[in-house]
## 1
Amino acid sequence: MTSELKTLLDQAADRPATFAPDVTDLVAAGRHRTRVRRIVISAAAAATAATPVIAVVLVGHLGNTRTAPQPATTAQPKMVTDLCAKSDDFFRTANDDAWRQQVVSTWTDKVVEVTDADGAMTVRRSPDGSQYAYCVAGVPMLGQPLGGFGATLLNVGIVTRPYQIQRYWSMGCGDDPVDRDNRTMPCTGVRYSYAGRVPEGVTRIAFSGLGQQANATIKDGYWVHRVYTDDIRTGNVDPIYITMYDRSGKQVFKERY
Amino acid sequence: MRPETEQDYVEFVTHQANALCRTAYLLCGDWRRAEDATQEALIRLYRVWGRIQRKGAVGAYARKVVVSTTLDALRRKSSQEVVGGDDYFAHETDPADPLGVLENRLVITKALAELPPRQRACVVLRYFDELSVEETAAALDCRPGTVKSQTLRALEKLRTHPALAELSDLAVKGLR
């Protein structure tokens, strides 16, 4: 073993604060996951058991109605255009196309949404009202939906931190009317989409940066906001800050994103 | 889960969360993401806790889940989508730790950032967590031979890293 390397690694991973997640919350999250998994497995088992019965019924039905053979067609899966994720299960949901497709098609209850020329940032609520997803959608170009291009989890504790912020970024072309069918137009803009849960006591969430200042849209305990830059290459000159204020106007949170 | 089994899980989390988080930090270079990856891993661990506990390999399994969760988050999933991605290892100084600039911790963090994820994981697991080759292979779900070759390559890169050139151990102990 290289003791000096070990010492350096120890120093690098050293910090005054000890990481101590709330175990009660972890257990609650673990129970929830276990319950969901059991339900999914039960549903899959039921579907498997029912398949032979359905097949027999279908075969019997088809046997009675002879039809001319039809050319085989393959169902094309619908493209997932919205980039969605749940803050408390980010790692799985952000990369699960099937889950995102389900959210876009069935989670139609939009808690809060902000739209512009480049698309929308939406907080969606599940049909049973128990879960929330942050979704970014782009506008079509040449008939192809763009959707979101990327997502990061920012300062989001799965269970421990009060400030849950999710950021997406996608190609943007600004607020001026543009020819969306012209793929060759010079477009170096990026639209950053932010969303999160409103922390307790917070009444205003302000964004500054990229030469812009504005407040996030807040509704039913969630917030969304979008910030645009014409040229991603100049974005770092004026960095984006998110500042949160309580009812008395006191600043309770400020971070650079 | 039975109450007594759940209590074992609670005790494990209470005592091991910080150590797992430190490993995750060395793998991703960002405390926030390390904490998130650790929490995600601990939640996943809850679901299989009873089975893993019966096998008596809780620590090894927990580390395996933390490593895979952290590395998964670093991986690009498609040509268009980046989850986390290049924001990891931002090379930025923690504003709450200005003296850190003067310390060795930044040197090794930057050197680690330049290694491919698997090589970085080998170094962290072998020399920070002090796992054997076999244990590291189990954590990374690969063969011991792969761990040996990846570790050797990683150490060669670290040895030639300008900031670590004076690290006598790496040069002296036959790691060339």
## 2
Amino acid sequence: MKFYRMHVLVAEDTRSIMAGAKRVEEALKEEIRIAGLEDEIRVVPTGSLGFSDKDQVAIAIYPDNIIYCPVLVSTVPEIVKEHFLKGRIVKALAHPMEQKEVTMEERTSENQMNLDIQKRILLQNVGKIDPENIQEYIAADGYVALEKALFDMSPEKVIEEVKTSELRGRGGAGFPTGLKWQFTRPNPGPVKYVICNADEGEPGTFKDREIMEGDPHKMIEGMILATYAVGGTHGYIYIRGEYALSIQRLQKAIDDCYEYGLLGKNILGTEFCFELCIHSGAGAYICGEETALINSIEGKRGEPRKKPPYPPSQGLWQKPTLVNNVETFANIPAIISNGGEWYQSIGVEGSRGTKLFSLMGDINWKGTIEIPFGTPVGDIIDNVGHGVRYDRQLKGVILGGSSGSLLVPEELTTPVDFHALAHIEAGPGSGSIVVMDETRCIVDICLNIAEFFRHESCGKCTPCREGTAQICHLLEMIASGNGLPEDIDHLEKISQTMMDASFCPLGQTAPSVLRQALKKYRQEFLDHVHGNNCPAEVCNMNFTEED
Amino acid sequence: MENKTVNIKINGNDYSIDSCATILEACRQAGISIPTLCYMENICDEGSCGICVVEVAKSHTLQRACITQVYDGMEIQTNTSRVRQARKTILELILANHPQDCLNCAASEICELRKISYDLGIDETPFEPTKELDLPLDTSSPSIVRDLNKCILCRRCVKECELVQSVNVIEIAGRGINSKVSCFMDKGLGETYCTNCGQCIKVCPVGALTEKNDVDRVWDYLSDPKKHVVIQTAPAVRVALGEEFGMPIGSLVTGKMAAGIRRLGFDGVFDTNFAADLTILEEGTEFIGRLTKVLSGEHAHLPLITSCSPGWIKFIEHFFPKCLPNVSSCKSPQQMFGTVTKTYYAKQKNLDPRDVICVSVMPCTAKKYECLRPEMDDAFDHWKDQLMLKDEDHFQDVDVAITTRELGRMMKEVGIDFEHLPEESFDSPLGESTGAAVIFGATGGVMEAALRTVYEVVTGKPLPKVELEVVRGMKGIRTADIPMVSVDGKEITAKVAIASGLGNARVLLEEVSNGNSPYHFIEIMACPGGCLNGGGQPINNDPSVCEKRAAAIYSQDEALTIRKSHENPEIKKIYEDYFEKPNSHLAHELLHTSYVERDLYELEKEEN
């Protein structure tokens, strides 16, 4: 076995690759070879290191615990010569590992907060291992949970453990996972499906991508454990077609699993069999809804089905089917390894464990984070996001994606957990925090969301099909300066009807942000309609002499 | 399965309801009506429109009554302000994108959207359109016109075509506000394997689907002094036309129908039933011929399948073309009538066939397609040499087929007070018919009519009872054994089957196609219930429609003195004077036809 004195991990998630990470990787290998160090230093691709929001390439150096960012092909020779060969860290490009979320500018700032409120369980391997190498996953205690389950636990015991953990679904609905598994198990085979919902369509959410690109085996191990627990036989990973890198890495992981006897017939030599494959989506947000997803796999129009019957009793091809989110499955190995009680000890009552959030918007640091439930929203923004950028005023926060809720600054002391957020008519949703500063126009934001839903409504039911188009039309009028006072009443009426009478949660939640905006930021709408004025000067209705 | 009941509350009152019931059914049992729009029992439960929503305690969204099953302890409120507001807003949303065309719309009398808007007190919609509403009309089909701008996407037509007719030629394409009912490759309906059955028209709640309007062509013929215009009326028309004038479902209006038509100005008011009798003679002879061959060890194509339903004919041409040899070569009564009009009748009346116009009134939209079929011009071929006809002289046997609905509109147009018309009879020589002919309008009727003649020819004796009840009824597929002892002492059991609705036809044809059909004779009607429920009949989704119209048809049969086709004196005469005998050479030339093997997806259309 070869030992290297240094590992250079190159972040190769989607955005880093777009920023040139693979060229940097090639340049590093070349310079290392030229320096004669290829037997001492290993260059390895890994998941996101947390710098991808800057569209810059980052590399992590072990055991020195240093991250270099930004790294250009042209700066590689200096790094190799100075640091790898001579041992002198290139300070201008370096960041200390523990403070890797800090930007270049903040690094020397006095006000820099050191508190790292993240608890990286799901993301523990992301940025540390090569996601395309199953051996690295195994070396990082991968598939230990599976081994424990298959040899030391009955399927019922696995379900008990998940129930004890009080894990709730991470896709947005928050249904107790153990309970869902318990419903699925007794329904008889001979065919039973386990589906991973990797459609990740909610705008503002990219946390599943982080796992699939950075640590695909964690999710797969979770799926295999779930299949064992519910008595499943066949599985699909329904993944949005746009996630090309995730599909590639998942397929590699699946292929390796088959080779290692972790998928297919007689897993690890037991009676347990599980066939898993990937099914690519084709660009429809509605297919993130579990029954529309199932229809999509069956080759039908991606439209939701009436429930009941629920998928655990009649799902894919009318067979019992378990559908869970990527993040939900990714939680399972740790729960099985460490026990449900351990998981329960993290988070707060009613919201156990950690949650991934995609932090984005007008904020200093953007990316995927993992925080225990119970952390106040404001703390996340300040400590991890390092506050609103350019020192601007915080205007509001959209929590949970386009179908989520709109929080005013006063509400940001609310802890992120299901119960506390429910009190302010909000929820963690899929896990997205979008920060808006004073330069944003609420009307414009609502219009952007409305355009999304008009485009994504499947069209099956009248309230959503017609409602999304009407909302878009009315907001266009308001944003253009041609809004009428009754437009606001109409928006409220249509929103109420969509929430009451849409066939599925897409239509029921599409007006959610708008409704809260009309309540909490009403004056801004009134300014547009009555004053023909956009206070944030975003909507093009203010013409001055200079224009 | 045990019949469990559950205890529920509706609007504060307690009820005990069958546990399988939906909220809609439970409310019906409780005498509470809930407005619906897209829902159609046994056909459409997509839950698309949302009009039927109700409030259910402990559900934070409103629930659709049509698809939500009751549970023990359920508490339902059907008329809260939240519910009423939702229903109104949904209608206002639909109306915003619906053409405000009610004054001109052919469906305005039956329009369910107009009715429910009125019932819910909606004056006008406060919303502006979000679609252009400028999709071109689909007039590619000779039978059915589609106006997608009026479509409210209730999906009833899709479900009817899929679940009942098993044709599946229409489906929703596109997403969200851009979704629309579409055919393969967005072709026009006339360019697809649509069978023209028109059942989609019957279920459409608005005017998005209507029959092709041929009324003006009929008026043009009637006002042309050079033309001798005759009309033939199908059996099913006389038990439904009255409904267009508000008379009860299944009113038998034969005499008034003849009177009304006469007042429209036709030169000959005739009865398709005459040709139905002719069809029985031809087809019965054909059947006996094939059966005799098979019984004596020779090969013949059995089962013989009836051919009077043009929707059914197009269905088998597309879906089971290899089974076409099983189809009777007889034309339908409509077509036989047309040919006879322009040959036998024209000769009798000393008329130039080019000046004879044959109009038909049918319960059927597919008849519009049938009369245009290129091979349906036998009269022209017959006269071609004798009259030295040129291509520009070309005429079809039947010039135009209109539906019962169109006839009703014509009479209304000239102010005919239908209900108070006197009873008149048809003209001669093509107006005499039998009970056997009139029962063609009901599913099983052709079979019964045929057997009344076939039985007598084979056994030498009439049926023990002229009413052959074993082939009657509304079940989609019915079978029967008809035991006969032939004149020379052989025992023959004719195994017969009857199907109505193309989904049921498909079941029987799968057997024929696989070579394991146990039957000798099969009757198929494209429309569920038979012609009395055809695509051209008055639109009425009352579940008792089929039974009532069938009852009227059978009562007309009972009231007639002559009930067997071979006893019709005018039929005897036409054979004596003209055709000589059934299946004669001339009969084959004028009264029989051939069929076309068709693809499902003809990407390059060939003109034949």
## 3
Amino acid sequence: MSAPNQAAAPLITVEDLHTYYGKSHILHGVSLTVGPGEVVGLMGRNGVGKSTTLKSIMGLVRARQGRVLLNGEPVTAQPAHKLANMGIAYVPEDRRVFRLLTVMENLRTGFDRPGVTEARKQELLDKVFAYFPVLGERRNQAGGTLSGGEQQMLAIARAMMLEPKIILLDEPTEGLMPRMVSQIHQIIDALHNEGVAILLVEQNVPLTLEASQRVYIMEKGTIRHQAASSDLKIDDPVIKQYLGV
Amino acid sequence: MASALAFFQNFPIELFIIQTLNGIVTGMILALIASGLTLIFGIMDVVNFAHGELFMLGAYVGVLVLSFTGSFWLALILASLIIGVFGAAMQVATLRPLIGRDPLTTILATFGMSLILQNYALWQFGPVARKINEPYTGSFHLFYLEYPWYRLMIAGLSATIIGGLWAFLKFGKYGIWIRATTQDRVMAQAMGIPVPWVYTAAFGIGAAMAAASGVLFGPLVGVNHTMGLDWVLKAFIVVVVGGMGNLGGSIAAAIFISLLEAYASIWVSPAQAVIVSFVVLILTLLFRPTGLFVPTPK
């Protein structure tokens, strides 16, 4: 498989990002890169700013300082809907499927874009229904009636409809049963093989180390450590120091 | 016991049927106004205090188009289009800069627009009511009344427009955008939906529906600059009783309240019958503040 892709020009570059919620300073200068097609893990304890990093990249939270580059172009001030159309997709921690929209309508929010032909839409649908057959069976069911795992699949499938270059994936396995967790792992691998980059926030350390090529470890709103995933073991002192309880 | 018997013996069944018809006709007009109001509230949490003035301006544009072209149908269509575009422009100018601010500011902004538009209409058209002639003047026998066909046409046309809105929201690409934004505007944005423009479009659609109801209702009352006030007050009651932002609930509540008022005015004067709406409003707020016509929250 493709080696860590840092040599190539990065797809996403985050430089010295500072984000506040009201007066509380959440991100204290986060810098990271994700290469094209690279799966990068972002680890750390609860409340260190992992989700806020993703939201800041997506433009859902305004960073007060620092910038985000997509293919070398600054995109920090762009509204989220433009970023989505430029190829950044976001799968939030709490999934946030449109509960009253059917599975099909949820997916349509992603592919009803200018320039997507009917044939291409059908291809995209066929692809996600092949990955997630259960979504195909439930295509006319309201999103809110799906189980937690199915909602997670729908949230990922919906993001795939944007044909993104990168997916910001926030805690995809939280609260899922083991069978679902391995399914999420497979889908991450499948997306990686398709050349989609992923910035993965995840508490499940073995999964993160297996699925990603590189990891960043955050503490107190900043990146403290980065390493190739193959260099870290689950019981590595670094992991213990920053993630152990 | 005896008095209850007397009540049923003297029950004015004919008047009851006539009032049922009247209640449905006013209910459909009210539903048309209220569905625009609830669409706007549901998607951007804005209570549009200028909605009655969009209704009134729609009627005036109808008067003007009618006097130039003589066609009621052209008046109906052009008034909806012109006020729809005007509403969209009003949203961009007055509400878009307030996105993310305290909701109170949007109340002040729309209330201010309502005063401006009302006084503009007074200045431009004067205090004397204008007339829109109904497109069809025939009538039919209903007991001792000559009931105008036009009233039934109003109900039918309102139902058609509301049905069109429903189909658009259900099946149209932009309808899905509106529903997605209503449910979760942050996630809608992350899915590439241009949420600020969806707000503008929804406001324009609500304005166009208000204008259409103004033209439809014009022949029954005469058009003047304060005609929006009564209706928008009732539309607010309907929106609250139907469950804020709930389209189906608003339509059901509009017909429900209009029927109650129509029945009440069998026994009391129509002016007193209005009290019924407020009683329903207060009871709803006391016992079921999420609205009468919404599923019980889980």
